[in-house]
Design brief:
The protein is an alpha/beta fold and 370 residues long. It has helices spanning 21-33, 47-56, 74-88, 92-101, 124-128, 132-145, 165-176, 191-199, 219-232, 239-248, 253-265, 278-298, 302-314, 322-328, 332-344, 360-368; strands spanning 37-40, 62-67, 108-111, 118-121, 149-154, 184-188, 210-213, 236-237, 272-273, 317-318, 348-351, 354-357. It folds into three domains: 19-213, P-loop containing nucleotide triphosphate hydrolases (Rossmann fold), CATH 3.40.50.300; 219-294; 299-370, Winged helix-like DNA-binding domain superfamily/Winged helix DNA-binding domain (Arc Repressor Mutant, subunit A, Orthogonal Bundle), CATH 1.10.10.10. The protein is built from 16 helices and twelve strands. Strand 11 and strand 12 (354-357) form a beta hairpin. The model has no long low-confidence stretch (mean pLDDT 92). The structure holds adenosine-5'-triphosphate and magnesium ion.
Length: 370
C-alpha cells in the first residue's frame, strides 16, 4: 500500500515542496544583502513554505522564524520571538548568548527530555511589563548581529490585535531601521491589514520594506510535480486533467493539493484519474468540511446569504459592476454592506477587483446545495 503523496494545510518541505526557482533565488539574494521584504500573497499560496525553504537553504544562514498567528498580548509576542530564537539553532554557544542578551526578560532554557529540543521561555512577569516588546526587539536585534541571521515575522498583521499596536509598531520599526545588514521579512495572508501597515502613510513601516508577491506556482512545473506525486501514489493522470484541478483551485497550491489528496483517496491503485472522478473526490471533501460550511451559513443574515449564493453562481464577480446588486434583488447599499461583511469574515476576498471564495470547495458545495 502506498502512502498518500499529497500534503495540504501546513508547511511543505522536502519532496512535498515543488521548487519555485525564480522566487527562491530572489529571496536568497535579498536575505544575503540584508534587504527587508514584505511578502504578499493570498492564503494557501505557499508563502510560509517558500520562505522557510529558500532561507533555510542558504548555507551558514540562521533563520529565526516567528509566527505571530493570533497573538493576543505583548507577552505572547515575547514568547513567540523566543520560540523562534530557540528553534533557529541547537548550537549551545548561540543559545547561551541569546539567553544573556535577553536578560531583561529573565529567560530560562529548558531541554525536552524526549527529543533534546531546547526552548527558551521568558518570565511571565517580565513579559507582562509594558516595555517587554521593546526589550524583546532589542534582544532579537543583538542576537541577529552575532552571525548571518534572517528574521521572518509570519502573520505579521496580527500585531494589529495587540493593545497599543501603534506604539508597538513604532518601537519595532525603531529597532529594525538601525539594522542595515540583518534581513527582516514580513509576511501575512490578510492583504488589507498588511497594506495598512506597510502602505499607510501614517504607519511607521511606511515604505520600509520591498514588496515581493507570491503568486501561483509556474503551471508547467506544478503540473509536472502533481503528476509525479500521483505516480508515486500509484495513480495516473494526464496534464489536461491536472489543468482542470488547477482551474478548480484557481491555481492556489494548497487547494489544488487538497483536491488531489481527495482524488487519490477515492480511486484505486493503478487507476487513470479523469474528470469523471471529481464528484466522488468533492463528496469526500464536503463530508469533511460540511460542518464548517453550515456554521458559516448559520451566522449570515438573509442579505449576506443572498449575496453569497449570487457570488457562488457567478464566479469571479466584479463587485463594482452595476448589475451585481440588481441580480441579487437587493438595494445597492445593502448588497454593498453584505459584501463588506463577507470580506471582513474572510469568507470571500477580492483580488484585482474581483470577488472570489476563500474556499473553492465551499463555493462548489453552495452551488450544489442552493
Ligand atoms: N512549493 C509548494 N509545493 C507544493 N505545494 C505547496 C507549495 N507551497 C504551498 N503548497 C501547498 O499549499 C499549502 C499551504 O502552504 P503554506 O502554508 O506555505 O501557504 P501560506 O501562503 O503560508 O498559507 P497561509 O496563508 O494559510 O499562511 C501546503 O500545505 C501545500 O499543500
Ligand atoms: Mg503561512
Amino acid at each position: 500500500m502506498s502512502m498518500n503523496p499529497f500534503r495540504y494545510g501546513s508547511v511543505v518541505e522536502g519532496e512535498n515542496f515543488c521548487p519555485r526557482p525564480a522566487l527562491e533565488t530572489q529571496i536568497r539574494q535579498y536575505a544575503e544583502s540584508g534587504q527587508n521584504l514584505v511578502v504578499q500573497g493570498a492564503r494557501r499560496m505557499g508563502k510560509t513554505s517558500l520562505l522557510k525553504h529558500a532561507v533555510g537553504g542558504i548555507r551558514g544562514m540562521r533563520l529565526v522564524y516567528v509566527d505571530l498567528y493570533f497573538i493576543k498580548t505583548p507577552s505572547d509576542f515575547c514568547a513567540r520571538v523566543m520560540k523562534g530564537v530557540s528553534a533557529a539553532s541547537a548550537d549551545l554557544p548561540f543559545l547561551s548568548r541569546a539567553l544573556q542578551l535577553a536578560f531583561r526578560l529573565r529567560p530560562t532554557l529548558s531541554v525536552s527530555p524526549a527529543d533534546g529540543t531546547p526552548t527558551i521561555s521568558v518570565d511571565a512577569r517580565a513579559a507582562a511589563d509594558p516595555d517587554s516588546v521593546g526589550a524583546t526587539m532589542e534582544a532579537l536585534s543583538k542576537i541577529a548581529e552575532g552571525g548571518r541571521t534572517c528574521i521572518v515575522f509570519d502573520e505579521f498583521q496580527d500585531i494589529l490585535h495587540l493593545n497599543g499596536s501603534d506604539r508597538i509598531l513604532a518601537e519595532m520599526r525603531g529597532t529594525i531601521q538601525f539594522q542595515g545588514t540583518v534581513p527582516y521579512f514580513f509576511t501575512g495572508s490578510s492583504r488589507n491589514a498588511m497594506m495598512d501597515i506597510f502602505d499607510g502613510m501614517d504607519s511607521p513601516f511606511y515604505k520600509s520594506a520591498l514588496p515581493l508577491e507570491v503568486g501561483e506556482i509556474d503551471p508547467p512545473s506544478f503540473t509536472r510535480f502533481l503528476i509525479a506525486r500521483f505516480r508515486k501514489g500509484d495513480r495516473r493522470i494526464s496534464a489536461e486533467t491536472v489543468a482542470k484541478i488547477l482551474e478548480f483551485a484557481d491555481s492556489v497550491p494548497g487547494d489544488a493539493q487538497e483536491l488531489c489528496e481527495a482524488l487519490w483517496s477515492t480511486t484505486a491503485p493503478g487507476a487513470q484519474i479523469t474528470e469523471a472522478d471529481f464528484p466522488a473526490a468533492l463528496g469526500l471533501v464536503f463530508s469533511r468540511e460540511i460542518r464548517g460550511y453550515e456554521a458559516v451559513l448559520e451566522k449570515l443574515t438573509p442579505a449576506q446569504s443572498t449575496v453569497l449564493r449570487s457570488l457562488a453562481a457567478n464566479g469571479r464577480e466584479r463587485l463594482a459592476s452595476a448589475d451585481f446588486a440588481a441580480r441579487t434583488g437587493l438595494a445597492a447599499s445593502s448588497a454593498k454592506r453584505a459584501v463588506g461583511r463577507l470580506l471582513a469574515d474572510r469568507i470571500v476576498f477580492s483580488r484585482a477587483g474581483e470577488c472570489r471564495f476563500s474556499n473553492p470547495f465551499f463555493r462548489e458545495w453552495l452551488l450544489r446545495n442552493a
